[in-house]
Amino acid sequence: MKRKAGQDRSITRNWRPATIAVRGGTARTEYGETSEALFLTSGYSYDTAAEVAARFAGEAPGMTYSRLQNPTVEMLEQRIALMEGAEACRAMATGMAAMTAALLCQLEQGDHVVAGRAAFGSCRWLTDTLLPKFGIATTIVDGTDNQAWADAIRPNTKVFFFETPANPTMDIVDLEAVCGIARKADITTVVDNAFATPALQRPLDFGADIVAYSATKMMDGQGRVLAGAVCGREDYIEKTLLAFTRNTGPTLSPFNAWVVLKGLETLDLRIRRQSENALAVARFLEDRVPTLLYPGLASHPQHELAMRQMAAAGTIMAMIVDGGRAQAHALLDALALVDISNNIGDSRSLMTHPASTTHAGLSEEVRAAMGVGEGMLRLNVGLEDPQDVIEDLDRALAKAGL
Length: 402
Prior knowledge:
The chain is of the alpha/beta class. It contains 17 helices and 12 strands. A 7-stranded mixed β-sheet has the order 1-7-6-5-4-2-3, with helices on both faces. It has a 5-stranded mixed β-sheet with strand order 8-9-12-11-10.
C-alpha cells in the first residue's frame, strides 16, 4: 500500500491525542480511500519464489500470512501504539488473549509473578490456576498497598501484573510507585488499562513496561466486536511477544480491527461524555446505596491518587447493597432502561452482578478476599441522558427496597 504523506513518525509524534485517534497509522491504497480499507485476506501472493523466501527470512519487507500481518490490523496496531505513547503494539483476538500472551510470552518454569488481588475473574484464573500449571509461582497482594508489592518480591520475580482501576472493586494502584519498585528490582510491569484506555490514563508515562487491553470495551465502545492489544517496547513486541503469537495464533480478524479503528475515532468524545454522565449518576447513588465505589467522588478512598493518574474517572462504578444476592438481583430485575449485561465500555448503560457472572468461576473465599461480595453490583454508564439513567435506577432501587 502507498502510505499517506505525513504518516512517518517524525510528524505523527507531534500530533495531539484527538488527531492520532482519527488519523494515526492510516495507510491508503492507490484508490485514495478516506476510510481505512478492510483487507479480508488470509494470505498474499508473490511475484517470485525468491521474494517470498526473502520475506520469510526477514530480509525483505512485505506480508506473508494474516496470522502474522494484515494491512487493516497493522493500521490498528500503529494507531493504538501512537495513542499509548508506545514503541509498538500487537493486536489480539480478545482482551484475555492479550493478557495471556503478555504474561506467558515472557515467563517460564521457575519464575514468580506478583499480582493485584482485585482483578477481572479470568485474570485471577490466569494467576491462580493457569500459571501454576506451568511451574510459575504467584503471589497475590493488595494492589493499593505499595509496601506489599515490595515485600512480595523474590529473587525469581519476573512480573508485576495488575489492573487500575480494578474490575469491579475500583481499587486504584499507584502506578508511579509500584512501577518504580518493579524497575529497581528489574521486574517487568504489565498493566491492564481497559477501564481507562489511553484517552484517560497512559501507564507508560508512569513507568510501566507493558500495557494490555480488552479493546472490546471502550475502544470499540459500542458492543460490536471482540479485540485485544498489547503495547510496549519494540524489542519486547517484536522479539518476545511476536514469537508467542506467531505460533499460538491469537489473531485479530481484519473486520474486527476495522471496527475498532472506527471506534477509536470517537473514543475521546465518548469516554469523556460517559465519564461526565457517570459522575452525575454516582452523585445520585452516593445518597441512595449503602456503599458506592467511584474514583471520581471524594468519598472514594483513593480519589486524589485517581485524579493524579487519570484525566477523568471513567465510566464504571460499583455499588454494594446490604441484602446480598437476593436484593442485588431484585434491583437488576427492576431495571427498565439499563440493560443487565456483563460487558462494559458500551455506549449503553449496563449493570451486572459480578459474583454470579464475571467472577462466578472463582471460589467464594477468593471473591471475599477480593472484595467481591454477594451484594456488589457493577454499573457501566453509557451515553444516554444521565437523568434518564438516574430515574431508572431510582425506580429500581425503590422496588428492591432501597
